[in-house]
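worker-3 :: picked Glutamyl-tRNA reductase
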Amino acid sequence: MHLIAISINHRTADVALREQVAFKDDAIRSANVDLFETKSILENVILSTCNRTEVYAVVDQIHTGRYYIQRFLARNFGFEVEEIKAMTEVTVGDDAVRHLLQVTSGLDSVVLGETQILGQIRDAFFVAQEEDTTGTVFNHLFKQAITFAKKAHNDTDIADNAVSVSYAAVELSKKVFGKINNKKALIIGAGEMSELSLLNLIGSNVTDITIVNRTVSKAQQLAIAHDVKYESMEALPQLLAHADIVISSTSSDTYIITDHMISSIQSQRKNDSLVLIDIAVPRDIEPDINAVQDVFNYDVDDLKGLVDANLKERQNAANEILQRIPAEIDAHNEWVNMLGVVPVIRALREKAMNIQEDTMSSIDRKLPGLTERERKIISKHTKSIINQMLKDPIKQAKELSSDKKGNEKLELFQNIFDIEAEQAYEPKKKKRNVATTSQIFSFE
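worker-3 :: tokens ->
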């Protein structure tokens, strides 16, 4: 039994390649089942997001398991196996556990500390569970990883500081206003950065949002997609008179918002604060506007300073989380090692209790006149003797879980007590007969 993780991510493949090796939502279930039916695979979970496609598997042999997983990916996405090998990162054993813990807690994401991946890992695990492709090991390990990530996010500030420009723009607005859910927001532009800013505003419960763009149809399309308002660029002066937050990101060569434009609407604003955030390069907002009373004007350099400071804070939190991972790996290994000990302890207890039951049956035959109370007292004391006798052997058996020669010593332990334990790890039965790698070892 070996643990393996095969990852295609932002470090191993560019976005054009990652787009080609992503499972669609409706294909994940059948993909899990197909992989599970593959030779060498004992358990599996498939994760597929916009930034990574990963296969986690329990395999009977490392090199064959790795090959069959890579072949599975190649066949699904129309690549050669060698092409998949070139874009995959492979980790095994403790390194695979470490990889899962880092991914789940957001330490391996494009945006350090992002929390969305935790939900994606959880969903991937639930899907695999529902399709019956997880077993003893993954049912324990993925729950451990999810619990670890939740605790890491709660105990540190890893996800509290903005590290993207669009998110920082919204966070900067909060520093001026405090709560912004009741503020009027104006987004100038309809490109990717504008949409990210829109999503961050919506995520902060801002509902009064208007999009303005030189091409009205693009503003309309974006507005309809997110259920907000849109206007033409001609309406900009009037919209500025009533806006609280303005985020601008266009490709204009000239200023969209000028000092004259802001001065002309000041009388309509009644000294209300106006936050102007310019995330365009070249700039959309004239720099000197910040001299106007109650107008806060920030450009991309201001945001970069905030992002850099926050990224440093996130990195400090990430380092704290990384220091906790070795203990989690040790805990997982201890649990795996105990898999071999528990059946032995169970067999020892069962044999001892059978002896106690046989003894009680003999007592019943030889002393048929015992009252129910007397019988209960004798049964209680014979069980107490057995428990006291088993205490030290069970303690010794548990200590064997961390012994380098634990398997040999456990076998000797069973011989001494004349017991036969169940198999420590029982692979899940395949839905159809599939030859194992010990029977077929071919690399076609």
